[in-house]
């Protein structure tokens, strides 16, 4: 019997008591202070409540708290620079060492879903090049294969669709042999077109702050947009893109830019080149980037 699936994010973890049996956690970063939660208030209680039922935790996001678990073989942890995506860390050896698991908790993006499918397949890629596709999608460096693009566009179009997540994992676990499963995936991907059009319109709001930063406020907008695409468009215009959406400020730079927002903003973990912080930290951001002389109204 295949493990049950639970889709999560670092700041929206399930209750340990609701998870069946032995649990593996894949591609879930240790929470940082950026979004109001923290490792101490979110991640650590989850680990403690799982206790010996935690079979493995495999993740590739930076965190100063990794050191706490360096002597616990259940934790297979790296930095984003060491592993651009999580599936390449899900090896046959890691799966075998963990033993039988009853529940997989995975991040609800392409990287996390491929990791879950690969775990169910005992460390084997769902299709040749799946690891490389996950790395290209997660780092936005290089071009994913046509297969990777189909999955990525569907998930970006419906980033909260639990049913779609399940279909994607099922298709990957089957090695893409259930060709009928492409239909709902491609149908979801087709919905991204209007979202992309809206995103490109929002990109017209970008304005330059200093030399290396462009900023756009999209708090008020006519419809849904793709934040990843919007940040990538910004990075075409400056080294750093910043997007304000309500009370959340997102910063992004190229994976190979050499920038580390975690260090600049004093955050304990996450992705070095993409972070989200509360709007109230905008003055701190400008100061860290050497832009204190500028104001953003």
Give the integer mean of the pLDDT values. 95
- Main sheet attributes: strand count, strand direction, barrel closure: 5 strands, parallel
Ranges where pLDDT stays below 50 over 5 or more residues in a row are: none
Radius of gyration (Å): 19 Å
Description:
Helix content is 35%, strand content 18%. The protein contains eleven helices and twelve strands. The strands form three sheets. It has a five-stranded parallel beta sheet, with helices on one face. It has a five-stranded mixed beta sheet with strand order 7-8-9-10-12, with helices on one face. The protein has a two-stranded antiparallel sheet with strand order 4-11. α4 crosses α5 (146-157) and α6 (162-173) packs across α7 (182-190). With 297 residues, it is α/β, with parallel strands linked by helices. The mean pLDDT is 95. The chain has helices at residues 39-50, 92-98, 110-120, 130-139, 146-157, 162-173, 182-190, 192-202, 227-235, 261-265, 282-288, and strands at residues 4-8, 23-26, 54-59, 62-63, 75-77, 103-107, 207-209, 213-217, 240-245, 248-253, 269-270, 274-278. The chain folds into two domains: 4-190, no CATH class; 195-288, Diaminopimelate Epimerase, Chain A, domain 1, CATH 3.10.310.
């Amino acid at each position: 019997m295949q493990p049950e699936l639970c889709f999560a994010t670092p700041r929206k973890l399930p209750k340990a008591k609701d998870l069946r049996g032995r649990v593996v956690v894949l591609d879930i970063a240790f929470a940082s202070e950026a979004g109001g939660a923290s490792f101490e208030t979110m991640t650590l209680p989850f680990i403690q409540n799982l206790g010996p039922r935690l079979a493995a935790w495999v993740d590739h996001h930076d965190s100063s708290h990794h050191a706490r678990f360096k002597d616990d073989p259940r934790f297979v942890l790296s930095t984003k620079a060491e592993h651009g995506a999580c599936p390449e860390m899900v090896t046959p050896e890691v799966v075998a060492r963990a033993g039988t698991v009853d529940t997989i908790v995975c991040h609800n993006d392409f990287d996390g879903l491929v990791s879950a499918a690969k775990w169910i397949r005992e460390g084997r890629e769902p299709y040749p090049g799946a690891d490389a596709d996950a790395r290209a999608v997660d780092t936005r460096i290089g071009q994913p294969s046509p297969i990777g693009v189909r999955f990525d566009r569907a998930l970006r179009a419906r980033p909260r669709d639990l049913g779609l997540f399940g279909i994607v994992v099922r298709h990957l676990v089957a090695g893409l042999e259930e060709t009928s499963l492409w239909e709902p995936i491609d149908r979801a991907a087709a919905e991204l077109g209007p979202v992309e059009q809206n995103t490109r319109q929002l990109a017209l709001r970008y304005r330059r702050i200093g030399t290396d930063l462009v900023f756009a406020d999209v708090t008020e907008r006519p419809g849904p947009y793709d934040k990843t695409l919007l940040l990538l468009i910004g990075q075409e215009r400056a080294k750093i893109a910043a997007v304000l959406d309500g009370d959340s400020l997102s910063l992004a730079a190229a994976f190979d830019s050499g920038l580390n927002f975690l260090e600049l903003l004093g955050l304990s973990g996450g992705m070095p080149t993409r972070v989200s912080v509360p709007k109230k930290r905008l003055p701190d951001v400008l100061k860290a980037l050497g832009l204190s002389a500028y104001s953003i109204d």
